[in-house]
Backbone:
């Protein structure tokens, strides 16, 4: 390798190392979130995009490292995702929530289990379309509500 190509090689190696620095937090799904066509749907959402299941749309705004309390009540530091959820209706229900792996959130008859939160590396998401960034993997269960629960949820 000649003297002129050494800095280029060093920069390439440093870039690859930095891009791999994103962290991932994953939790095992509880039995009630086992994949079951028609009852539980698995979705992955990349940062800046959204997914729709039934009348529920979920967008992923950001992923960052932050302090949180895990499902066992223990303090942790790790990837946290900010989800924007919209449930169709008149009026639509919206909720913005910060979540971590292992957490379950509910909105209007849907239970959303956060299976994985992936934080992009420092250089990810800065390139052309298709460049990887943070993401989440969710398991969504649509619960059938009786009329009293549905009326209560509609009232807010």
Residues:
């Amino acid at each position: 390798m000649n003297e002129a190509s050494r800095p280029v090689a060093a920069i390439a190696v440093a870039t690859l190392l930095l891009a791999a620095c994103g962290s991932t937090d994953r939790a095992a799904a509880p039995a009630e979130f086992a994949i079951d066509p028609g009852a539980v749907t698995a979705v992955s959402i990349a940062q800046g995009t959204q997914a729709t299941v039934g009348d529920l749309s979920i967008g992923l705004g950001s992923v960052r490292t932050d302090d949180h309390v895990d499902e066992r009540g223990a303090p942790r530091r790790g990837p946290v995702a900010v989800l924007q959820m919209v449930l169709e209706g008149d009026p639509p229900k919206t909720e913005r929530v910060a979540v971590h792996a292992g957490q379950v959130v509910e909105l209007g008859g849907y239970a959303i289990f956060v299976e994985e939160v992936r934080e992009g590396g420092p250089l990810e998401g800065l390139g052309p379309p298709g460049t990887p960034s943070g993401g989440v993997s969710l398991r969504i269960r649509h619960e059938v509500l009786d009329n009293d629960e549905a009326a209560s949820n509609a009232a807010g």
Remarks:
- Residues 7-20, 147-151 have pLDDT under 50 and may be disordered.
- The domain at 22-155 is CATH 2.60.98 (Tick-borne Encephalitis virus Glycoprotein; domain 1).
- Strands lie at 24-26, 40-46, 50-53, 56-69, 75-87, 93-99, 104-107, 110-118, 135-142.
